[in-house]
């Protein structure tokens, strides 16, 4: 179900079922009103009985939704104020406005070809193949179109992918990488290690997942240590710029919510949809869900919260890190709770690649390697052109070697200069080490002392204590006594 439809349906059920009656406040009578606590009680029970949300919805999440209702002018306080006011779970009075609070559906862009579905799997975008810039045969286009239809209509259960998935946000490189670049555990392996999670986050996740058998025996445990480790992991994921399922694929995963009643269908839909994720996101998501499942199934782990169960805590802490929309008025918190709960319970299967899809990918890649090479805009076939070698100067390889070595050294030096978190003392020390190791690169970056002083932080002057009364510039002369005797 579309998020706009769910938003409107929830408002309709809330407005049509919440009991309204007469209330007194400040010696005045208000008809057709309700208190904040009455609204929370009714909406909480309504959401828990609704198949789109389920019993995982908490009272706090219901309160957050009512605050969104107040901001969106679905409800207003008894004086007609909304937007800047804050909804409270108390005896404060509220009412429904006379204007319709329902959302209007956004206009969906029309496709260029009315009879075509958007391209779900863009095999031709796999640029690492030598034939990636070539014109694929007509047979390949038909195969791609058939795969799109099967994935979009059969797996996701949609009549059309229009308005659900923008073809510009689908990368064939991501799909192929997610299918083949995995380790023995089935987790995506990243080519660029800089895109991976920091080491301290991975270490914290391993420690919590294997509790109490933490691999790092040097770490001293103390009461509440496991809660601090969880807080460390939570802080990292909550500071990500966007959810792991990305804003672009929000509509895709929200539509899967309607399939959760059929476990096999929902699992297959998630298997296909998770292949569309960028590899770093897919890796983080898989490791996070695996951690959540192991923490919930570990009887030796102490309680991580004094008031709620570990399972509820894990879902509430990480659900909005997994699924979320750019529109803060959506039901993303409630929708994410149900979807993340299902993904956590079935994390061992949703990241498996369907055998049929893997076979189709392998067949298509093999087909691209066999097709005749023809460049776009040209009728000339260069596949049979004879190969030849061009003679180069002897000094050219050495020149290329020097240039190829200096480029990363320049980048390393610039990264050291731009590092604002490095203390000034350590930065000066490393800059001196770099100068001794690579004087030519350092001299090219800092040709003058002025340019060097403008970048390297100045050394703080040492503290000189003031001269005391007992400090002298000249050494003291030996003490001489004069004795006098009187007759």
From TrEMBL:
SUPFAM superfamilies for the chain: GTPase activation domain, GAP (SSF48350), Winged helix' DNA-binding domain (SSF46785)
Residue ranges of every copy of the Rho-GAP domain listed in the record: 124-351
GO biological process, one term: intracellular signal transduction
Record Gene3D superfamilies: Rho GTPase activation protein, Winged helix-like DNA-binding domain superfamily/Winged helix DNA-binding domain
CDD domains: RhoGAP_BRCC3-like
PANTHER family: DEP DOMAIN-CONTAINING (PTHR16206), DEP DOMAIN-CONTAINING PROTEIN 1B (PTHR16206:SF11)
Protein name per UniProt: DEP domain-containing protein 1B
The species this protein was found in: Takifugu rubripes (Japanese pufferfish)
